[in-house]
Amino acid sequence: MFSPSKSECLMLPVTIHRLSDKPLLQNGSTGIRVVETQKLLAHWNLYAGAMDGIFGAQLEQAIKTFQRRVFLPETGVVDGLTWRSLYAGAPIEMPVLQWGSTDKAVLLLQKALQASGQKAITLNGIFDHQTEAATQQFQLRQGLVGDGIVAACTWLALSKTTH
After folding, report:
1. With 50 as the cut, is the pLDDT of residue 125 above it?
2. What's the pLDDT tens digit per position in 48-60?
3. Which of 67, 116, 117 is nearest to 92 (CA)?
4. Is 13 helix (H, G, I), strand (E, B) or coil?
5. Exposure class string for 33-56: b at 16+ Cβ within 10 A, else e
6. CA–CA separation, 26 vs 119, rounded Å?
7. Where does the pLDDT of residue 20 fall: very low under 50, low under 70, confident under 90, or very high at 90 and above?
8. CA distance linking residue 159 with residue 115, whole number of Å
9. Best CA proximity match to 59, nearest among 69, 72, 46, 70
10. DSSP-based three-state secondary structure for 126
11. What's the pTM?
């Protein structure tokens, strides 16, 4: 069972503000920032290739896997949001969701809940009673407060269990 500590959940926003100078990296990029990316992905057990500073297909796939894990678009490009997530090792800038929420993020939540074992959930983008109950069950299984509100700790727990 994964239970993020209170300090893990509270430090996520602090990490966000320190990485504004990182360059955009993509397949074909080279250099020390690529090595940095390789090391970060290796730290998160998503990259086992050479630390050679060359952005190739293997690194691109590892980035896509990481992006999926932290609920980012799977572009394979290391942009500002991906940099911040790499350092946090967690989803960042995720919305708080609760009963009545409706948007793409709710659909993302519903898919993540399904992937974590909550199979009886309708993928409709509406935070309804079914989604609330599935969220509460997930939270309780993870040792979190089962309040049905999806905030930083729940997003973090989902990122650690669904991929």
Report:
1. yes
2. 999 999 999 999 9
3. 67
4. helix
5. bbebbbebbeebebbeeeeeebbe
6. 36
7. low
8. 11
9. 46
10. strand
11. 0.84
**Which residue is it, tokens 């799977």?**
74
Which pair of tokens denotes residue 49?
A: 């290739």
Beta bridge partners, 25, equal 78
First to last CA, the chain: 15
Residue 92 has pLDDT above 70, yes or no: yes
Sequence-separated contacts (24+) of 151-154 with Cβ below 8 Å: 151/96, 152/9, 152/12, 152/13, 152/94, 153/4, 153/8, 153/9
Three-state DSSP state, 54: strand
Structure tokens at 84: 């911040």
**Do 24 and 77 form a contact (C-beta atoms < 8 A)?**
yes
Give the C-alpha separation, 11 to 156, whole Å.
12
Q: Domains in the chain, start-ordered, CATH in brackets?
A: 6-88 (1.10.101.10), 104-161 (1.10.101)
Is 1:142 a contact under the CB 8 Å cutoff?
yes
* CA atoms of 118 and 131, how far apart (whole Å): 9
